[in-house]
Amino acid sequence: MSFVVRTGVDMVNIARIADVVARHGDRFLLRVLSANEITICAGRIPAIAARWAAKEAVAKLLGVGIRGLTSGAHAVPWHDIEIGRDTAGKPFIALHRYAATIAAAQGLSSFDISISHDGDYAIASAVAIGITPDA
Ligand SMILES: CC(C)(COP(=O)(O)OP(=O)(O)OC[C@H]1O[C@@H](n2cnc3c(N)ncnc32)[C@H](O)[C@@H]1OP(=O)(O)O)[C@@H](O)C(=O)NCCC(=O)NCCS
């Protein structure tokens, strides 16, 4: 057995997300975010941008793209990666369906995510650890 560690990071220009929200509104929000994530963001554009960055960061650590942004066979849907919030306000990663399957196949079992937004940018950094059987 061997330990595996993966990281992913993504940075988003908040104005770019503000522009998409202004043009597409709920259609964009519902495509990218779960109902719970929409509640957490409460219309805060920096928080929405941060969820976009967080999902991209998780996709990077999984070694896949996000469906709609990339067309690769392994691209995951936006809703397969969910960013929750605990009672202290700390974000956490919840993987569903195909994203959970990909993570399990790589032996990844524990995840963490950190988010920040300031000025023009939102950033998210994700980490995953696990144990894989030796080849
Ligand atoms: C967490 C904290 C440091 C955020 O710092 P900030 O510079 O004001 O804001 P940033 O833009 O860098 O980060 C905001 C993000 O921090 C995350 N966050 C909030 N509370 C958090 C916590 N307890 N632990 C980790 N991350 C947290 C959230 O994801 C938030 O983004 P969101 O509102 O879109 O969900 C600040 O709210 C704080 O001091 N909280 C109380 C102390 C604490 O719990 N610290 C934890 C780290 S030691």
> Nearest-angstrom radius of gyration?
15 Å
- Spatial sequence of strands, sheet with the most strands: 1-5-4
Q: What ligand species are in this complex? A: coenzyme A
At the fourth level of CATH, the homologous superfamily is: 4'-phosphopantetheinyl transferase domain
State the helix count.
Answer: 4
Distance between the termini: 9 Å
Give the CA-based shape: globular
CATH arch. level architecture = Alpha-Beta Complex
Quick one: how many beta strands?
5
CATH topology: Ribosomal Protein L22, Chain A
Percent range for helical residues?
25-40%
**Largest sheet properties:** 3 strands, antiparallel
Order of helices and strands: EHHHEEHEE
According to CATH, what is the class?
Answer: Alpha Beta
Mean pLDDT: 95
- Percentage of residues in DSSP E strands: 25-35%
The tally of domains stands at 1
Task: Explain this structure.
The relative contact order is 0.24. Helix 1 crosses helix 3 and helix 2 packs across helix 3. The chain has one domain: 4'-phosphopantetheinyl transferase domain (Ribosomal Protein L22, Chain A). Strand 4 and strand 5 form a beta hairpin. Strands 1-5-4 form a three-stranded antiparallel sheet. A two-stranded antiparallel sheet has the order 2-3. The longest helix is centred in the N-terminal third of the chain and has 19 residues. It has four helices and five strands. By secondary structure, the chain is of the alpha+beta class. Bound molecules: coenzyme A. The site of coenzyme A has 11 residues, from helix 3 and strand 4. Coenzyme A (COA) binds next to helix 3 and strand 4.
